[in-house]
Amino acid sequence: MNYSIKEVAERLKGLREILNISVDEICEKTNTSKEDYELIEKGERDFSVTFIYKCAEIFGVDLIEILTGENPKLKKYCVVRKGTGLPVKRREGFEYQHLAYLFKDKHIEPFLVIAPYNADEQDKPISLSVHDGQEFDYILSGTLKVVIGEKTKILSAGDSVIYDSSTPHGMIAVDGEKCEFLAILIKK
To answer: Between the chain's N and C termini, which has fewer beta carbons within 10 Å?
Structure first.
């Protein structure tokens, strides 16, 4: 299952209009500039998982409904085989697979994430994001440099971290190789 940026844009606009939410209001609630939001809603700019996650909360729908137009239907359990998670684009180079996209009324959003090693990022400030709830990250392989507020931690395979996602946070792979980890967004 994949999604089209143009189709997501149409769903965002449709939901916003049905719910009588102004562009200014959605921009304020998602911490997005009006220019960026309008480009997203036209399908001319990609969006982050954080942005779609916030929109889903505002619109009162499942994140997967915005991405695919389908409402998850499974309530008892959901199996997602290796390599078949819903691919979600979040930031350049990173690979995200949603691991429970068919499960209805979930209290978490679980992702398998592959962070690429990028030598150019190593000495630059790490891009930070914020969203409601909490996040739990478990490192499967490689090494991840994580910034949470004013703190910086280095995590290796088997390490984990949980934090309040409203605290600015970001991460990059370090030590010359990609990092694979589970990221579980826990709803507020």
So the answer is: C
